[in-house]
Amino acid sequence: MTEVSPIRLWVMRAMYLFMALGVGLMIWPLILSHSSELPRMTGVAWALLGTIGLLALLGLRYPLQMLPLLLFELIWKAIWLAAFAIPRWLEGTLDEGMRTSIFDTSFGALLILVIPWRYVWVNYVARPGDPWTLRRSASEAEANHAAA
Amino acid sequence: MPQPEPKPGTATAPPDREVPLWRLYLMRAIAVPFIISGFTNYLPKLLDPDPSGRGMTISMLGGLWVLAFLVLRHPLLMLPIYLYEFVWKTIWLLAFGLPQWRAGRVDPQLSQDLWEIGLFPFVFALIIPWGYVWRHYIKAPAERWR
């Protein structure tokens, strides 16, 4: 078992709250009232971002169970910085919109401190995955049954 | 024998016996074409980005693609990602796809998006183990507060 301290859970909840409020205030008004002539990818981007805010609400109640949402947030922001923002910054071709996005995205760096990495290691890497065969499924169920 | 209550704030083995093996395979199966198509759809666009684009959408889709590998190993643990896919595609369908279609917009791009995005809320609705979601993400007591 890997204990996660109550303080860490509070920090995680604060992050979920920050995500829910940020997306709720910035993205949801755009989703709820937009012009029908919206560029195609803008609608996709808003739907993707809006969902982060909605699911972050669930993270307030279940911060550990919703960890994949924090991992997603960290990974996509890292990808965006590495593939888009940093190359343009190095080229000196950043526009105002990109600068604003870099500022918004930089809060994602807090996730490195917020995510309980030991818990991630134990549960997502070291632990065997969900069963692939009936035999393993049954033997694990028996073991769990015996433990109960 | 009744199941022990999971200790809040601790890692517990997922009660895989709650979800039949065929369902786990179904959950994994939907990740496979996504992973394969990502090598041609996402990876080239991330390694050689379009200089005129902002890159948000492709980065988020790329993030989902990276996590899809973890989904193969831990479909139940990664359930929030299935919920994410279900919700974002539903939002797109309700807020963007359907209104444009109802407004009479007819173009190949919208038809393609309705097919590639708008169909998937229904696919995910069939794949997600809703009983498990209900028990673990709604009915279960909140993780510890103090």
Can you give a write-up of this model?
The complex is a heterodimer of chains A (148) and B (146). Chain A is an all-alpha fold. Chain A has eight helices and no strands. Chain A is globular. Mean pLDDT of chain B is 87; it is low at 1-16. Chain B has 146 residues and is an all-alpha fold. Chain B is 66% helix and 0% strand. In chain B, 33% of the residues are buried. In chain B, α1 runs antiparallel to α3 (56-73), α4 packs antiparallel against α5 (108-118) and α4 packs antiparallel against α6 (120-127). Classes of the chains: A mainly alpha (148), B mainly alpha (146). The interface between A and B is large, with 68 and 70 residues.
Task: State the gist of this model.
Chain A is an all-alpha fold. Chain A has helices at residues 6-26, 28-32, 40-61, 67-91, 96-106, 110-114, 117-126, 134-147.
Number of helical segments of chain B? Answer: 7
Please give the largest β-sheet of chain B. none
Q: What is the average per-residue confidence, as pLDDT of chain B, rounded to a whole number? A: 87
Overall tally of structural domains of chain A: 1
- Helix amount of chain A, in percent? over 70%
The number of helices of chain A is: 8
Protein structure class of chain B: mainly alpha
Tell me, what's the shape of chain B? globular
Question: What is the number of beta strands of chain B?
Answer: 0
The total beta strand count of chain A reads 0
Average per-residue pLDDT of chain A, rounded, comes to 87
Report the radius of gyration of chain A as a whole number of Å.
19 Å
- Biggest interface pair, residues each? A-B, 68 and 70 residues
Helix content of chain B: 55-70%
The SSE order of chain B reads HHHHHHH
